[in-house]
Structure to design on (255 residues):
């Protein structure tokens, strides 16, 4: 039976998709973004954070039994299961099995992915999902490599492929806005121009940089690489105006 290495299952999440979600964080990520707020999910091995081991092998059924404890919250909205990480494609076979079984149980499904991973798994999983969130961090290949540990070519290719599968608000592209990496207007302008080449109806949003993962680095006995960094006042508003100027934004889920 397929097993996945789970970092955490978060109940009653309001940030990870439409409605009230139960978010399953998988371990393992091929990237090493400097700003990562879930550093405990990067390694494909269990590890100790703040004296507690993070990383438990679970079957699809064990995960869904935990998810279904929240079913009452899904009844009056668009809530359901969100698979996140880490990078869910690092455990592609498990993620596919989990989403397939969740659909059999009539659960709404979403996934958050960096887009860095096996295209075969990605497209198969994307075809089943109700909503997929994909990061689009930068069009600047060299900077992408320097700040995340990998170039952006495979990610952009994967985005294009998913964009032809998922339209009308079911693919949402997101840019985490990181000071010094991609917070200049021309960087967001370049991303908007790329998004405009995709089929219509793709959602796009900016996520402002935050420091919520900072304590986890201490817990893992690692240095926080983004100490003393913050977004300049008014920057996110300026960048959002660029996005709106391109007619990009989020779709209404009820459509
Ligand atoms: S892709 Fe996400 S989980 Fe992976 S290192 Fe980057 S921010 Fe962290």
């Amino acid at each position: 039976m397929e097993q996945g290495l789970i970092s955490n299952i978060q109940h009653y999440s309001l940030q990870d998709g439409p409605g009230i979600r139960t978010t399953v964080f998988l371990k393992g990520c091929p990237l090493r973004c400097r700003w990562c707020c879930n550093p405990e999910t990067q390694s494909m091995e269990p590890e100790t954070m703040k004296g507690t081991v993070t990383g438990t092998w679970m079957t699809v059924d064990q995960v869904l039994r935990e998810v279904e404890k929240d079913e009452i919250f899904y009844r009056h909205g668009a809530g359901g299961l969100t698979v996140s990480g880490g990078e869910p494609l690092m455990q592609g076979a498990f993620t596919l099995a989990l989403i397939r079984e969740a659909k059999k149980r009539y659960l709404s499904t979403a996934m958050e992915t960096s887009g860095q991973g096996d295209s075969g798994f990605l497209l198969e999983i994307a075809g089943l999902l109700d909503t997929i969130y994909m990061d689009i961090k930068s069009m600047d290949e060299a900077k992408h490599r320097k700040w995340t540990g990998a170039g952006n070519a495979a990610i952009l290719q994967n985005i294009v492929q998913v964009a032809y599968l998922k339209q009308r608000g079911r693919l949402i592209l997101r840019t985490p806005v990181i000071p010094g990496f991609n917070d200049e207007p021309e960087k967001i302008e370049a991303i908007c121009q790329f998004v405009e080449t995709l089929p219509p109806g793709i959602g796009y949003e900016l996520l402002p940089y935050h420091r919520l993962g900072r304590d986890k680095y201490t817990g893992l006995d690692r240095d926080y690489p983004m100490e003393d960094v913050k977004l300049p006042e008014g920057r996110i508003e300026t960048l959002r105006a660029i996005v709106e100027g391109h007619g990009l934004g989020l779709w209404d889920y009820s459509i």
Residues 3-245 form a domain with the TIM Barrel fold (CATH 3.20.20.70).
